[in-house]
Design brief:
This protein is of the alpha+beta class. Helix content is 25%, strand content 45%. It is built from four helices and eleven strands. An eleven-stranded antiparallel β-sheet has the order 4-3-2-1-11-10-9-8-7-6-5. The longest helix is centred in the first third of the chain and has 19 residues. The N terminus is likely disordered.
Length: 248
């Protein structure tokens, strides 16, 4: 009987130790760098496909669009984008959107960086991910492994339940490499006109590069007296880092 009691104590302590270390700091560090990269940190090419839907909560006034773009960033940090196709509610508007993008490109990199910087600050204010900087705002609890992936759930820590931008969700990573595989969750207190918002981010590695391969967001927004449900599925494919310059 005494041995059984000691065995139960050992299991309890081991479970507590695992929970305290879940997830490893390296997982959160890599997650942070993959979902919040510097604007000019990556040089190379990729293809981005976005499928979006906006409709009333009852499914009426349904509108959808699909846009495929070819993107690249050169060694000087200049972003190049080309619209491959844009289909809105079944109508091909590729030429129209391509012309609009070309006009934006003509505004210059400085103007675009200013806009991107403002947008990035807004996004940072909207969502506070469970990264190393904000780890103390969250509580993590381990889950049983699934398909070889280590997993945990996370939620706002006591005293932060009403903080805006915090998530409640689940994180998975490769226990051998410590690469995060995906994260998904619901915003506890959505900011601004958002009434509901959920997201899922999937990550993939290509050599030394860990990047976001898919980002799905959805929810309910209210603008004035109008309520609309939205869904956006963004995929990053054919990601190829630029070849090192001669002498590097």
């Amino acid at each position: 009987m005494r041995r059984i009691c000691w065995a139960m104590v050992a299991v309890t302590l081991a479970a507590g130790a695992v929970g305290a270390q879940t997830p490893p700091v390296a997982v959160l560090e890599r997650l942070q760098s993959a979902i919040n990269p510097e604007d000019d940190a990556f040089t190379g090419s990729w293809r981005m496909t976005t499928f979006s839907v906006v409709e009333k909560p009852n499914g009426k006034a349904h509108h959808e669009a699909t846009m495929e773009m070819s993107c690249s960033r050169d060694a000087r940090g200049r972003l190049h984008r080309q619209v491959i196709r844009f289909i809105k509610d079944g109508t091909d508007e590729t030429k129209k959107i391509r012309a609009r993008l070309e006009k934006q490109e003509a505004e210059g990199e400085a103007g675009r960086k200013k806009k991107n910087g403002r947008k990035k600050k807004e996004q940072e204010a909207d969502v506070v991910p469970p990264d190393p900087e904000h780890r103390d705002l969250y509580v993590f609890e381990p889950l049983p492994p699934e398909d070889g992936a280590a997993r945990c759930v996370f939620r706002p820590a006591p005293g932060h339940a009403k903080d805006r931008g915090l998530l409640t969700g689940e994180l998975a990573w490769d226990p051998r490499t410590l690469d995060p595989l995906w994260i998904e969750g619901e915003l506890s207190h959505p900011p601004g006109p958002l009434k509901e918002m959920h997201l899922r981010i999937e990550l993939r590695r290509n050599g030394d590069l860990l990047y976001t391969s898919r980002m799905v967001t959805g929810g309910l927004a209210r603008i004035l007296l109008l309520k609309r449900r939205f869904h956006a599925d963004v995929r990053f494919e054919d990601v190829e880092p630029a070849a090192p310059a001669a002498g590097d």
